[in-house]
Amino acid sequence: MRLTLGVMKVNLLLVLLFALVFNWPIFLHFYRILTQLEHVKAGFALSIPLVLLAALNAVFLPFTFRYLLKPFFTFLIVTASLVSYAMLKYGIIFDVGMVQNILETNSGEATSYLNGSVVLWFLLTAVLPVLGLLWLKIEYPTPWYKGLAQRLAGIALSLLFLVGVATLYYQDYASVGRNNHTIVKEIVPSNYVRGLYRYARDILFATPVPYQPIGTDARVVDKGGKPTLMFLVVGETARSQNYSLNGYQKQTNGFTMKEPDLVSFRDVRSCGTATAVSVPCMFSNLTRREYDETLAKSRDGLLDVLQHAGVSVLWKENDGGCKGVCNNVPTLEIEPKAFPQYCEGDSCYDEVLLQGLDRQIAGMKGKQGSKLVAFHLMGSHGPTYYRRYPAEDRVFLPDCPRSDIENCSNEELVNTYDNTIRYTDKVLSQLIAKLKTLESQYNVGLVYLSDHGESLGALGLYLHGTPYKFAPDDQTRVPLLTWFSPQLQRDRGLNQDCLRQEADSKRFSHDNLFHSMLGIMDVQTQVYDGKLDLFKPCRAG
């Protein structure tokens, strides 16, 4: 026999579920805040859960009509369960950027988050409540205006209570809000519902902008010497703090440190805290302050301008997609089934990118002779860091061979991440070695730049994607490495000592990539801005 409950009681149960289960992370945050204050009014502390209950009651009641209640709250419960888990376990803040990351994630990346912990949480907080809601028989008041009156009364009482609390404790709430800017982004479901709305408005259904070619006047300065072969390596989730080249105590750069012509830039900032923002931004001529996704997708980027100049371009993909920056250039996406020795399931070690490289470079035919190969690494992509390096590269132990990284010790988690950094360094050294074999044909060089960093538990945060203005350095400070052959240095008039001094003393960012690559490739165009070319101060003439 089915249990029968009135709609107002069902609404109350839903309010309690969202307040006490899905919003548990915000209560934990409030607890940390209040325990750090010298003086806390008891009434203010007690009002916090009541305010949330009243607010949810006022918001939920308009959606409790027949034929709307069950489908609406089924969707809300399922999504809130996943969101609250991510907030509770990883400290993730849900805004439009995080919603974009989730909706644009490929299946391989999505399944990397699956583990026993999330499955159990989802069963208890989503599957069981939804089954209960669907099984429940709900009584709706008749006539219809009686139910409407009850809902309006419930909304009015909730709003009246909120006004009363604001009258008594406005200063307390305002003070907490001023000093803890993320708190309003932690309320479930308003945080991700607002993110979904903004994603739909600003990205999914944004007003189309006519495509704008830029740099069509680009040309390579012909000096009569050898053409250039440049490797541009886009890193994934690497943070500068874990680079021994930048002072980290563990030897994570033992391969590239042997290269006398390698330069590491110590202070470089990313354009975003997630691939979906950083990669399109770093390949655009828009700076971080100017960046707009709709504009960036509607104009040429770095690779397009290089092609306008006659440079032959190839993009090799091992990270699930180029976020639009390679749409107009030849692209090779790694197919895991074709490389079983480098791949497991749908994930491949980055060494796979070297396979067939000689043949692919030889097959690149451009009008000018110079070539650029871009590599998109899997790098240090979490949370399954342990899947980013083969068994022989498990150097820092004990590591953490699991995806529920919050259950690993800090030592295990950092060791696993450091193994990914070391493995990337190994791949970079192999790419440099490959370039050295081609020096007789080309002036060769390599530029490596990561898209964003990563949090490993500091401040209660894991992974990445924190809104930029709240993000710690762990997520925004990224490694930038350059290696240029002695012949290319002479050809470009590049002073390595000057470059090292610049790399050690100045701050750079993703804003510099577009113009620096045009500069080092000797491309002249009106869209080039020498002030953003980090190599220019160290070039003769």
Provide the descriptors you would attach to this structure in a database record.
single chain; 541 residues; alpha/beta; Alkaline Phosphatase, subunit A; 2 domains; 7-stranded mixed beta sheet; two-stranded parallel sheet; 18 helices; 17 strands; 12% strand; elongated; Sulfatase_N; EptA-like_N; Phosphoethanolamine--lipid A transferase; transmembrane; transferase
Q: Name the strands of the widest sheet in spatial order.
A: 5-15-12-4-11-7-8
The structural domain count equals 2
Percentage of residues assigned to helices: 40-55%
Q: Poorly predicted ranges (pLDDT <50, ≥5 residues)?
A: none
Indicate the proportion of strand residues: 5-15%
Question: How many strands, which pairing sense, and closed or not: the largest β-sheet?
Answer: 7 strands, mixed
Number of helices: 18
CATH class of the largest domain: Alpha Beta
Oligomeric description of these chains: single chain
Question: pLDDT average, as an integer?
Answer: 94
Termini separation comes to 87 Å
Structural class: alpha/beta
CATH overall fold name of the largest domain: Alkaline Phosphatase, subunit A
Instruction: Give the CATH architecture of the largest domain.
Output: 3-Layer(aba) Sandwich
Q: Give the overall silhouette.
A: elongated
Count of extended strands: 17
**Rg over CA atoms:** 27 Å
**At the fourth CATH level, what is the homologous superfamily of the largest domain?**
Alkaline Phosphatase, subunit A
Subcellular location: Cell inner membrane
Membrane topology: Multi-pass membrane protein
Domain Phosphoethanolamine transferase N-terminal: 52-202
Keywords: Cell inner membrane, Cell membrane, Membrane, Transferase, Transmembrane, Transmembrane helix
